[in-house]
Amino acid sequence: MALVELYRLTGHDRYLELAARMIDQRGHGLLGEGAYGASYYQDGVPVRDAAELDGNCVRALYLAAGATDVYLETAEPELLEALVRQWEHTAATKTYLTGGVGCRRRTEAFGAPYELPPDHAFGETCAAVASVMWSWRLLLATGEARYADHIERIMFNALAAGVSLSGDRFSYVNPLQRRESAYESGDKAPFRKPWFDSACCPPNLMRLIASLGHYILTTDAGGIQLHQYAAGSVRAELDDGAVFAIDVVTDYPWSPVITIDVAEAPDRESELSLRIPAWCRAATVRVDDGPAVPARGEGGRLVLRRRWRPGSRVVLDLAMPPRLTWPDQRIDAVRGSVAIERGPLVYCLEDAGLPESVLLDEIGVRAGWPLRAVPRPDLLGGIIAVDAKVACRPGEPPPWPYGSQGRAGEAVSRRTSVTAVPYYAWDNRTRGRMRVWLPVQ
Ligand SMILES: [Zn+2]
Known about the structure:
about 25% helix; binds zinc ion; globular
């Protein structure tokens, strides 16, 4: 990545050639086996031949991001094909609901496809940063909204969980479940700390947060492509020098409504391209005084093309009722469980938010039971919580936790209401249990 940037800055071919050479040489066993084998260093299979990412997550994702940078300058189709194949495989089989990656804790590495245990999730904060960097480059290479969707998921969940609400404690690992007792100490303990022996994650997170503005939109000769939704103003110069300036007003992701006011526009037809997130089932859009109409677009994008004038207004409504999300059955560790989501946010339950008589491990949910978004300005710095009806089976656990039939058919002992909070805000109260995936009863 750095060599390609240096090439862009100086125009000296030798930097790009060296970057390309490093990509070409990877995967031929030149680094040796080391302590963890060649795949740990992404030296087991050449980049263009690899079907999937393997080995240490952060190394693998940085290499993929660097290879994508090389593609962006060389336009070699074979390289892009390989990278897209690896990205699709990673998204489909090796990524947690939060957008985090990595479950082999000793080597901080990818596991086998669908090996995604929630309690032993590694999900290093640096890997979330690296995933954003790679997806951003593929977004630049292809323009496809799915990469921006992925960036959004990581930003609001895996990445945002990397720092405490107080801003001075960080997480190295980001599991989707914390059991009663922490099972590791040191850097890999499942709670935030002020600093680490291996202090890669805090500065990496700070660097990304400081550069968030660069991931919001892109421009070309045709207009503006809005990839992420955040309040702010931008005055963009299009490829032909025309100025397109917009003000975005929104409280996203709490509010589903995004208002875009045109401040300056090219003196010709131009495009405002809006991402419709894959999680949104009923987006609507209204332009100026027109009616709100379903916002449907090709490939996750709604492209509004017209002669814009200062004062034009677009209101996008990304309806976000709370929803239950099911995992693919191949993810054995969470089969039979569901997660709560609202908009781009993944939710979780913690001991800290439960009624006194309710234990987290006794809770189950059923499809169809109500979920309700509740503004809680008093909680965790101000959030939209999700109140959920859940089933409780209090009582002593059985002496032998296996039997001839499941418990799905048993009567629920008690129904109660609990408050789910955004995953990023977990571990800011007492250090108790937490879980994202809840068993279906
Ligand atoms: Zn790190």
